[in-house]
Design brief:
Helices cover 88% and strands 0% of the residues. It has helices at 4-10, 13-36, 43-87, 89-109. Helix 2 (13-36) runs antiparallel to helix 3 (43-87) and helix 3 packs across helix 4. The protein starts with a helix and ends with a helix.
């Protein structure tokens, strides 16, 4: 039986994990930069730091909102699929079989 790691690698999880890791690294680097310039007395640096802090806060909020939207959409799709399969189990089996035959046909032609 295939382990979960191998399945997730085929489904694009490493790319998503890499993007998530890069996002965390970017946020961490920007936060470090903000801390390092916090003691600089230059007025322009202070304005830029404030703008950067606002932009970072907006980006974090947008990322959270996006993740929440995707999670909600996936949950709704899962619920709708579950409801459909429970209401029409034979139809779901037929559709799955048809998709399997189609995929088998396409793979067989290659």
């Amino acid at each position: 039986m295939e382990n979960a790691m191998a399945k997730s690698e085929r489904n694009g999880a490493p790319a998503a994990s890499a993007r998530s890791s890069e996002w965390r690294n970017l946020v961490s680097d920007v936060e470090d930069l903000i801390k390092k310039v916090a003691n600089v007395d230059d007025e322009e640096v202070a304005r830029m730091r404030a703008r950067l802090e606002q932009t970072l806060a907006k980006a974090k909020s947008a990322a959270r909102d996006g993740a929440t939207s995707v999670r909600d959409y996936a949950r709704d799709a899962s619920t709708a699929t579950d409801d459909y399969v429970r209401e029409s189990p034979w139809m779901a089996v037929g559709v799955a079989a048809a998709v399997g035959v189609l995929v088998g046909f396409i793979v067989g032609r290659r």
